[in-house]
Amino acid sequence: MRAIGAAEVAFEMMCERGMQRTAFGKELVRLGGNYDVIANSRIEINQARLLTLQAAWMMDKYGNKHAASEIAQIKVVAPNVACDVIDRAIQMHGGGGVSQDFPLAKMYSFMRCLRLADGPDEVHRRSVARIELAKLFSKE
């Protein structure tokens, strides 16, 4: 999914810039909570990737209808993760992150549009809730 790819590119740019940029005599990644920023970004990207793989497996094994909940979850998770990681990368780049010298601002804009194009998150969350409740109550 392109959102995961964009998040991965932003993550790499964030790490590279954090190692190159210095403040108070140290690399930026070694200051404050930047280790957490990097760790959380990696964790979120992997979560989105694993959810995508789970949905693909379910689609292959059971068909699209039985993977509807996972597909809706991906439509919420992947673009949100991408926006969050890109935003963190912009922050690590400072003012340059929103300049035309780096692709991050354009990537963020594209991912934000993707969130809207796939439908509002609330619609997908409602689908997930409806499907999961139906699964639970059909077992009774």
Describe the structure.
By secondary structure, the protein is mostly helical. The chain has one domain: Butyryl-CoA Dehydrogenase, subunit A, domain 3. It is built from 5 helices and 2 strands. The protein has helices spanning about 1-20, 35-60, 70-95, 105-115, 120-140, and strands at about 20-25, 25. It has a two-stranded antiparallel ribbon with strand order 1-2. A hairpin with a 2-residue loop joins β1 and β2 (about 25). α3 runs antiparallel to α4. The protein is elongated and about 65 Å long.
**CATH level 4 superfamily:** Butyryl-CoA Dehydrogenase, subunit A, domain 3
Helix and strand composition category: mainly alpha
Q: Given the C-alpha coordinates, what overall shape results?
A: elongated
What Rg do the Cα atoms give? Answer: 18 Å
* Mean pLDDT over the residues: 93
User: How many extended strands?
Assistant: 2
CATH class division = Mainly Alpha
Number of self-contained structural domains: 1
User: Strand-and-helix sequence, N→C?
Assistant: HEEHHHH
Query: How much helix is in the residues?
Result: over 70%
GO biological process, one term: fatty acid beta-oxidation using acyl-CoA dehydrogenase
Pfam families: Acyl-CoA_dh_1
Keywords: Flavoprotein, Oxidoreductase
InterPro entries: Acyl-CoA_dehydrogenase (IPR050741), AcylCo_DH-like_C (IPR036250), AcylCo_DH/oxidase_C (IPR009075)
